[in-house]
Design brief:
4-stranded antiparallel sheet, Thrombin, subunit H, 18% helix, alpha+beta
Length: 97
C-alpha cells in the first residue's frame, strides 16, 4: 500500500502487487496530516489512522472509514516570517510579508 509520489490525486491510497508493481486497487484516504498510526490486526485487516480511522483489506482495498480531524497544521514559521517582515519594515521602511 502506498501513495504515488507524482500524482494529482494526492489523497488516493493504492494497493500494489509486490511481484510486478501493478496497481490492484485504489481508495481515497486523506493524508493532510500524514499517517498518525497504522496497526496490522491480521492478514485481512489493517487499521490506518490518517484524518480519521480507516480499515483496509490489503487484498482488495475494502473496509470502512470514519473521517475526523486527527492532526493540526503548524503555522509557526508563517507567523514568525510575518512578524520579522513587519519588524524589518518598521526599521527600514520596506515591508516584506
Amino acid at each position: 500500500m502506498g501513495y504515488r509520489i507524482l500524482s494529482r490525486k494526492k489523497s488516493t491510497l493504492y494497493g500494489f502487487d509486490i511481484h510486478d508493481g501493478e496497481e490492484i486497487w485504489s481508495r481515497p484516504i486523506n493524508r493532510d496530516y500524514d499517517w498518525n498510526d497504522v496497526m496490522f490486526v491480521n492478514n485481512t485487516t489493517t487499521v490506518l489512522v490518517a484524518v480519521g480511522v480507516h480499515t483496509i483489506d490489503p487484498r482488495d482495498g475494502s473496509g470502512w472509514s470514519y473521517d475526523s480531524k486527527t492532526g493540526k497544521k503548524d503555522y509557526t514559521a508563517a507567523v514568525a516570517g510575518t512578524i520579522l517582515g513587519l519588524a524589518s519594515g518598521r526599521l527600514t521602511g520596506h515591508y516584506l510579508v
